[in-house]
Structure formats: structure tokens, C-alpha cells
Amino acid sequence: MYKRVAIIGAVLIVSLAFWFAVKPWIDSVDTALGGIHLWLWPLVWFLLLVAVLGLAFMLLDGLWWRWGVLAAANVPFFFAVDVWTIALPVVIILILLLQWHASARIADETTARRTVNAKRVLGAGVGSIITTLLVAVSVAYFSTPAVQVSAQRGQLPPIISRAVQTAARQAAALELSDLS
Question: How many CB atoms within 10 Å of residue 144?
Fold first, then answer.
């Protein structure tokens, strides 16, 4: 009992750390195209969250324990979203369903094996876990006030505008270098 609660607590702590590391990166205009130090910690916490979620789904059996893992993994997401839209409940349901699917696949693989091969067992559901976390980060980014204001004005978000301008400059420079 205590070990199961500790596993769910570990999921909650890693999820909080992940969203704490991602939130400034999502809210800032300059970080998406910045140096490695700006996105390295969110990436480390992302990978750690995927691993902890996969292990929690592998180690905890039972309906209520899986719901506990899902709650611990997704409650911090609510604090990362700035603007609540009509589509947000649909996204939350999608995230929960995909994570439930991942947990079911991992649980099926765990019970089907006599010897537990962690790579094979976790490989069954890690793709769904990664997809749900990327969807959650995308929703959190596109719900920020800066992106919402630029969408109302019919413009691209500042980060995407700079990325397009940089890519266009590099393509133009490459074309000009080919002409000479």
C-alpha cells in the first residue's frame, strides 16, 4: 500500500517538476529559438516523466491505482494552461484516453510475460505517453495570452514568425551563394 502511494507521489513530483520547467519556456517569447540551456531542463524532465509514468503503469495494477497515476500525472497540467477554451475539455479527455490506452497496453504486456523485459513492456505504451505529453505542451503553448492575441490579429506567434524569417533568410542566402 505504502509503496503504491509512494509511486503515485513520485509521478506527481516529477510531473510538477516537468510543468514547472516547461511553463517559463512556454510563456517566454524568446526561449523557443534560444540556446541549449533554455530547453535542456524541460527535455530532461520530459524524459524523466515518460520513464516514471511507464514504470508506474508497469508496477501498479488495479483500476484505482491507474486512475491515481493518471491524476498525479495530469493535475499539474491545469496550472500550466493560461486560457481556458471550449476545446480544452476535449483535449483533456483525449490525453486521459491515450494515457489510459498506454497503461492498458503496458499492463497487458506485463501480465503476458513470465520474465519481464522492461524494454518490450514499456515499448508497448511509451509512444502514447510521449504523444499525450506533447499534445499537453502544445495546448499549453497555444493557450498563452501572447499566442491568443496574435491569433486574434491574424498574425503568426512571435516565435514562429522569427523561425520563418530565419529559415527564409538562410534559404535566400543559400540560393544567392549557389548563383555566385
Answer: 20
| CA dihedral sign of residues 162, 167, 168, 172 | positive
Alpha helices (H) in 81-154, listed in sequence order? 88-112, 118-123, 126-142, 145-152
Which three three-digit cell numbers place residue 143?
493557450
The predicted-structure confidence for 78-116, as pLDDT tens digits, reads as follows 887 766 666 778 888 888 888 888 888 887 777 776 666
Helices 88-112 and 63-80 pack at an angle, to 10 degrees, of 140
- The three cell numbers of residue 61 are 495494477
How far is the C-alpha of 180 from the C-alpha of 175, rounded, in Å?
A: 9
pLDDT tens sequence across 36-78: 666 788 888 999 998 999 889 888 888 899 889 889 988 888 8
Question: Cα(158)–Cα(58) distance, rounded to whole angstroms?
Answer: 41
151 contacts: CB under 8 Å, gap ≥ 6: 157
Supply the angle between the helices 36-59 and 63-80 in degrees, to the nearest 10.
160
For residues 93 and 28, give the distance between their C-alpha atoms in angstroms, rounded to a whole number: 27
CB 145 within 8 A of CB 81: no
